[in-house]
Amino acid sequence: MIVYHPAYDVSHCLYRMLLLLENLPNNDIEWERLQLLDFLILFPSLLKNISFPSELRSARKTLTNIQEPYENIPNPTRLMFELDNIQKESVSSLIARGFIDKDKIYNNIVSRTNVELPMELSNKMLSDNVVKEPWFLLLVNNLSILDFYGAKGLKARTGMMEYRYDI
Fold it and tell me: What are the residue ranges of helices labelled H in 24-128?
């Protein structure tokens, strides 16, 4: 029996990253932050485990409608680590196509260029129901701009990445 999961699909990762980059309030995003947000799009139920800052605690209500996943995720941190190569391959492909600035990536910044997406892909992204979901809006509008580093940063709040050695 063959089992498919979008987590291991490079094309799906390309789409998710473009979806994020097209909907983020800023044009530039740190590589690790993009990886984390991409992972949370894959497994939105993990948003319920985040420790939100006081100004976003009311937003937790938007997460109650997220269905529990069919699959069990025994170790999300490990899974996120395993997806690193797929995410890197996706970004490399986006750089090769000119959708991401190749010079900024050396500074661990992912920046969307002005190269237009193919019309069919652009239309698909505009009509995707995910971008209208309250959890997605919370992700791109609020979590994407939270402090990322340190004990009160997004890395620590999610528990998905090591933060103790952040500068």
Answer: 31-42, 76-82, 84-96, 119-127
